[in-house]
Amino acid sequence: MTEINFRSATGVILTFVFAASLFALPASGQNNPPPPPGLPTISKKPVAPSTGLPKPRSRENTKRRNLPKPLPQTAKPLPQPPKPGLQSPPPLPRASAGGMQLIISKQLGVSSALELDGATICADKKLVDPSNSDGASFQNYFSKNQLGFETVALTDQRENVDALIAGRCDSLVLEISKISGALAELNANGDDYVVLPEIIK
C-alpha cells in the first residue's frame, strides 16, 4: 500500500514539473526578453539570400573604365634663329637632268670617251666652269678616269659646232637635249661625226 502511494506521488510531481517547464518556455515568434539595464543593444539587420552571381556594374562605371587615357603633351621646340657668321653657301645651279655627251669626228678613230686622254674639247662656258654642277661633273669625270684634257670655252652651240668642223678641238661636249640638233648640223653634208656612248653627269 505504501509503495503504491509513493509511486502515485512521484508521478504527480513529475507531471507538475513538466507542466511548469512548458509554461516557462517562450512561445514561437515571441520577442526575446530585453537585456538587463547597462548593456548595449545589438540590432541585427536582415541578410538577403545570396544568389552566387556578381553584382552588375553600373553604366556610369563602365563608361569611365572604357575611356582612353589622354596622351602626354610634349612641347615642340621653338625654331632657333641662325647663328651669325655660320650662313650656308648658296646652292649650286642645278645640273642638266639628262647629263652630257661627247661628239667626235670619225677620222679621230675613237670609240669611247676613255680614249680621249690629252684631247682638246670644245664646250659652252657653263659646262666647263667648275663653280656650277655641270662644270663640276665634267671636271670630275676626267679626273676620276685620269684623263688629261684642254678646253676651248665658247659662248653658244653655233660657235662650238664651227670650231669642231674647223679642227680647233678633237671633241665637242653638249647637253644630251642638244646633241641631236648639233649632230644634224655637223652631218649636213655627210656622216663624218658620231656620239660617244658615255654619259657625263
Topology of this structure?
Elements: H1 2-24, H2 59-66, E1 100-105, E2 119-124, H3 133-144, E3 149-154, H4 157-165, E4 171-175, H5 176-186, E5 193-195
Parallel strand pairs: 2-3, 2-4
Antiparallel strand pairs: 1-4, 1-5
Structure in a nutshell:
The protein is of the alpha/beta class.
Structure description:
There is one protein chain. The protein is built from five helices and five strands; from the N terminus they run H-H-E-E-H-E-H-E-H-E. It has 201 residues and is an alpha/beta fold. A five-stranded mixed sheet has the order 3-2-4-1-5, with helices on both faces. The longest helix is centred in the first third of the chain and has 23 residues. The protein starts with a helix and ends in a 6-residue tail after the last strand.
Binned strand content: 5-15%
Distance between the termini: 152 Å
Secondary-structure element series: HHEEHEHEHE
What's the count of strands? 5
Give me the number of helical elements. 5
Largest sheet: 5 strands, mixed
Principal-axis shape: rod-shaped
In helices, the fraction of residues equals 25-40%
